[in-house]
Amino acid sequence: MTRGVAPTQARSRRPRAGFFLRLAFAALAACTLSATGAVSADDLGGPAQIAVPSALAKAKSSFDRHARSWMAGLEKNEAENRRTAPVYSVAAEPVIRFDGYSDDFETQVKPTGHPGAPFVGILRYKEHLYTCLRDEASRCTVSRSVPVSEIFSFKNGRWTY
Description:
Blueprint: H1 17-31, E1 38-39, H2 41-44, E2 50-51, H3 55-83, E3 87-90, E4 93-101, E5 106-111, E6 119-133, E7 136-155, E8 158-160
Antiparallel strand pairs: 1-2, 3-4, 4-6, 5-6, 6-7, 7-8
């Protein structure tokens, strides 16, 4: 005897509504990825794990590469600032001052909800004012430190300032 069906009724070959609900849930789970971009077997009711990068995960990875490139450019600027720094006389010692940048930085990517610019990336670092004895580059001190936040938008597949 089939459970839930009277012996005189023929069982329908049409799937039950519960089947469609499970199917819809599995499709939703496949489309809605976690922040890591992976859907586990439990989410899909299947035996294997599927790793699919989400758009946000791709944007974060792309922005991290962009931020490293941006910071490398600032490192070049710092070297140029140091090379061309004016010399001051402080207590009869030649001193130079120049702007530099911290090695540490943080990135954050947020979705905007706008198709033309679907993400915004925020790069945070510190800008330092260095004061050094001109003849002893190893004797530099940070005179001032200012937090900086640079905001970039993701348009046409590129991060723009």
